[in-house]
Design brief:
The complex is a heterotrimer of chains A (212), B (263) and C (403). With 212 residues, chain A is an alpha/beta fold. Chain A has one domain (3-206): Rossmann fold. Chain A has helices spanning 19-27, 38-41, 55-65, 68-77, 87-90, 195-206; strands spanning 7-11, 31-35, 46-49, 82-85, 95-96, 102-103, 111-114, 126-134, 146-153, 155-159, 165-171, 173-181, 184-187. Chain B is an alpha/beta fold and 263 residues long. Chain B has a single domain (5-254), classed as TIM Barrel, CATH 3.20.20.70. Chain B is 33% helix and 29% strand. Chain C has 2 domains: 37-238, 3-Layer(aba) Sandwich (Rossmann fold); 261-392, no CATH class. Helix content of chain C is 46%, strand content 6%. The longest helix of chain C has 18 residues, at 141-158. Classes of the chains: A alpha/beta (212), B alpha/beta (263), C mainly alpha (403). Chains in contact: A-B, B-C. At the A-B interface, α1, β8, β9 and α6 of A face α2, α3 and α5 of B.
Chain lengths: 212, 263, 403
């Protein structure tokens, strides 16, 4: 299916910048729409969960939209491809240890833990461009290939569920930079800020088959 | 492995052009000597084409940025027309301002004066938006005794605070990154003050972006290798020399420093 | 200075980097070009590309053209190989040499093509030359941006979506690589063509000292309009392997194209950079900034093509490189500067770690047509001094005293 037919619903829960994502998706020929109501969920071919900020704050905001049950239905039951980015990725974990600990949606599972600083080489937050090694093929990223993406975070998936690691990255220790579980994909880095490599990653997401 | 970053710094002033007020890109020297150099959107696209790793956009007109529609529209356009990480600042006054800037397209927010006058802002912003969004911009000048003293208000007002003590304090309060600028070297091409930079990078476990004085591409390599900086920000350097970010990157790479490969 | 072991280019060459064997990325790029690119497949891709556009518009394509070896061969190849009906578009920078004009006449008559030429306002050009020389140590901003933009405006105006350029930049620098077809689009314009200054930025830097409309030929057209035209702007050299020596021989034989003497270039390179009377000055400035210039560049190409050893090359470089060109006097008039002022500006743009020693400079020889070059249009000292004064107040220098 041509990318032009993709309609990506971006969950707008006031937790971060949606503009760049819209820009990137449109650049790739998809249509980007902000989703704030349940009814809109069924009109899209793909879903995207962004997220910038503290986990607790984001989780609260997401809960407050009331969309979570409908989202679960669209994603888990109907199989709509969904991409979680940065905190959006972390929200799909079982739990995060940020600021006292919070439960996640658990749709991809695993635990999010703080990245441990080891200065001078390992500083936290992990900010900047780092190479992600693809454990499996994704779009035109071959299994075993690497590319640099932009990261900006202090917490990461240190024990993802087995078989779900799409890409890993090293900062002090190796952590899961991208996960995949069927139609669910998530990325700790910001593909919409990662220039050419990021666009390729988003293109790979758009190429995933939408629910029929 | 995490790469080092080259970050163009865009200083913005408001200019009346015809019937409109438009944001204009300027350079400064010693935080004064303002020179208009171009259109910020056009420059951002050029930097993007040249593989700049991220951009810092600073409002130097003293307006409160969260209410400044000219600046907010600029940020929105930058986020809509480029695919680059954006750190934005200049006139941030309260925690909610972070939310406004992030929602308009910023990825990180820098604070300068407020870090000194209302340090609790750092902690509040980090708690709500995450430390990774909070960049504390520390400007300093060296006194006759060689001590580096924190200055605010476009580096015009001394605070009596020692740079090292202050850097440690902002880290403890929850800052994610420090943008360290030697105000005396701003725009003078003399090179980064490696001594102070090193002292700061040794003192805190958070990333430090070095700024102030790049005149040769060798200065970038020095700041990254000898100074321990994670990134170097430059404003004037890219505007007045036949040296673009790609050339600076090649130089850094040739010095054996890890930097993002061009695709 | 660190240098590439095989080809000799120094670390001050734009975008150069060296691998663990001290081989530069340009050499590696050439290896890739010679060993990895499937040129047969690329030729088929070119057939397909041309097939998409030919016959559907008033012209099959636009060929931006200077009359030098690369654009002449590009034109020749596309007309002979494909029988295309191109619109040849020339951006006349005002420094064309007599032999070059003759070449253009012979070429266009032999091949039978329409030629559209545009010569911009000299007074505007002077301001642009001075400003870009001061700010970027490169006075050719108007040329780079004009050659890059003007054909695109013609494409829009005359509705000719296919624009075919000549050699890819990947031949000489690493801004782009041979791994992809080199798209000559706005991104490329911003990356390597405009010296980091768009026309909008130049307007600001000139302090609004020109009519905004005067900058249109140097402005890249809006992407939206180009997309609506379904434009495609690519390098022929991404589809057909470039070989300047072979190509120059062909156009010499088939079109009567003649090479020329060029200031401070070894005589065996008669095909090189014959189209611009200011090339000697341009090259001299490059030497002051980077410690190498055209002779090194030409030798490096010959070394990579197995036509010369580094030793042989070294002799040529020592004999011809870095000399003061006679054309400098003409250039100084054009921008209203003295030689001392010129040196002050050029020296301020040195690229580390090169340090230039003006005391070492020898005078270079005149070309045979030097006296025929147009000297009309000197800039008034008053005007240039004003601009120079502003620049001096603002300049960034590594050795400046702290204020």
């Amino acid at each position: 299916m041509a990318a032009g037919k993709r309609r990506v619903g971006i969950i707008d829960y006031e937790a971060g910048n949606v503009r760049s994502i819209e820009n990137a998706l449109e650049h790739l020929g998809a249509r980007a729409e902000r989703v704030t109501r349940e009814a809109e969920l069924s009109e899209v071919t793909h879903l995207l969960l962004p997220g910038v900020g503290a986990f607790g704050h984001c989780a609260q905001k997401l809960e407050a939209t009331g969309l979570v049950p409908a989202l679960r239905h669209a994603v888990i039951e109907e199989g709509t491809p969904m991409l979680g980015i940065c905190v959006g990725m972390q929200l799909l974990a079982d739990r995060s240890e940020e600021l006292g600990g919070h439960a996640g949606l658990g749709w991809i599972g695993g635990t999010v833990r703080p990245i441990l600083p080891a200065p001078p080489m390992v500083r936290v937050p992990h900010v900047g461009w780092n190479d992600v090694r693809f454990e499996e093929a994704f779009g035109d990223f071959a299994a075993g290939s690497s590319a640099d993406f932009y990261f900006d975070h202090s917490f990461a998936y240190h024990d993802p569920r087995e078989g779900r690691v799409l890409g890993s990255c090293e900062h002090g220790t190796r952590f899961a930079a991208a996960l995949r579980h069927g139609n669910l994909v998530s990325a700790q880095f910001h593909p919409e800020k990662s220039q050419a490599a990021g666009l390729r990653f988003l293109a790979a997401f758009l190429a995933m088959d939408p629910k029929c | 492995m995490l790469k080092k970053r080259i970050v163009p710094k865009l200083l913005i002033k408001h200019r009346q052009l015809g019937s409109q007020v438009r944001p204009v890109l300027v350079t400064t020297r010693g935080y004064s000597d303002i020179r208009d150099v171009g259109d910020p959107i056009s420059q951002a696209k050029i930097y993007e084409a040249q593989f700049a790793d991220e951009l810092i956009v600073l409002n130097i007109d003293g307006t409160e940025i969260a209410g400044d529609e000219v600046m907010l529209s600029l940020i929105e356009r930058l986020a809509s027309e480029t695919f680059m990480p954006l750190a934005v600042g200049g006139g941030v006054r309260k925690p909610a301002d972070f939310g406004v800037l992030l929602s308009r397209g910023a990825d990180k927010v820098t604070i300068n004066r407020m870090a000194v006058e209302q340090p609790a802002l750092i902690t509040e912003a980090a708690a709500r938006y995450g430390a990774q969004c909070v960049v504390v911009s520390i400007d300093y000048r060296k006194g006759p005794d060689g001590r580096a003293e924190v200055h605010i208000d476009h580096a015009s007002r001394p605070t009596g605070l020692d740079v090292l003590d202050f850097a440690r304090r902002v880290f403890e309060l929850g800052a994610g990154e420090i943008l360290l600028t030697d105000a005396d070297r701003d725009g003078n091409g003399q090179g980064i003050d490696i001594e102070t930079l090193r002292a700061v990078t040794d003192a805190v476990p958070i990333p430090v972006i070095a700024s102030g004085g790049c005149g040769l591409s060798a200065h970038f390599a020095q700041a990254l290798a000898d100074g321990g900086a994670e990134a170097v920000a430059a404003g004037t350097f890219f505007c007045f020399r036949d040296q673009n970010p790609m050339q600076a990157r090649a130089h850094v790479r040739n010095a054996g420093i890890p930097i993002r490969a061009e695709v | 200075m660190k240098r590439c072991v095989p080809c000799g280019l120094p670390e001050t060459h734009e975008t150069i980097s060296f691998d663990k064997d001290s081989v530069c990325n340009i050499c590696r790029g050439q290896e890739y070009r010679n060993e990895q690119v499937d040129w047969d497949a690329q030729k088929l891709a070119l057939d397909a590309l041309i097939g998409e556009y030919r016959g559907r518009y008033d012209y099959d394509c636009i060929i931006p053209f200077s009359g030098g070896k690369d654009s002449t061969w590009t034109l020749y190849y596309l007309v002979k190989e494909y029988g295309l009906k191109p619109l040849v578009v020339r951006f006349d920078h005002g420094f064309m040499r007599p032999n070059l004009e003759e070449n253009v006449m012979k070429t266009s008559r032999t091949l039978g093509v329409d030629v559209l030429s545009f010569r911009p306002n000299w007074k505007v050009v002077q301001k642009l030359m001075l400003q870009s020389f001061l700010e970027k140590g490169d006075f050719c901003w108007h040329c780079h941006t004009g050659i890059g933009s003007y054909p695109m405006w013609i494409a829009l105006e005359k509705k000719i979506p296919l624009i075919l350029w000549g050699e890819p930049s990947a031949e000489y620098t690493s801004y782009f690589s041979y791994e992809n077809v080199e798209e000559v689009d706005e991104k490329r314009f911003n990356r390597i063509t405009n010296l980091g200054i768009s026309a909008d930025d130049m307007y600001v830097r000139l302090g609004g000292n020109v009519d905004h409309r005067d900058l249109k030929p140097y402005t890249y057209p809006p992407l939206k309009e180009l997309r609506e035209l379904n434009y495609r702007s690519v390098c022929l050299g991404s589809y057909v392997k470039w070989d300047v020596k072979k190509q120059s021989e062909i156009i010499g034989r088939e079109l009567g194209w003649k090479g020329d003497e060029v200031e401070n270039v070894p005589p065996q390179y008669r095909y090189e950079k014959i189209e611009c009377a200011m090339q000697g000055v341009r090259d001299y400035i490059k030497y002051i900034k980077r410690g190498y210039s055209r002779p090194s560049h030409l030798v490096a190409i010959d070394i990579r093509n197995g036509r010369m050893s580094r030793n042989e090359g070294q002799h040529l470089i020592e004999e011809y490189e870095g000399k003061r060109p006679p054309s400098l006097d003409i250039f100084l008039d054009f921008i209203g500067m003295t030689e001392a002022e010129f040196m002050e500006v050029a020296m301020s743009h040195q690229v580390s770690p090169y340090v230039h020693d003006p005391a070492q400079t020898q005078p270079g020889a005149k070309t045979h047509d030097f006296d025929k070059w147009i000297r009309q249009g000197a800039m008034e000292r008053e005007a240039s001094q004003e601009v120079l004064k502003r620049w001096r107040e603002q300049q960034v220098r590594a050795d400046a005293k702290q204020s």
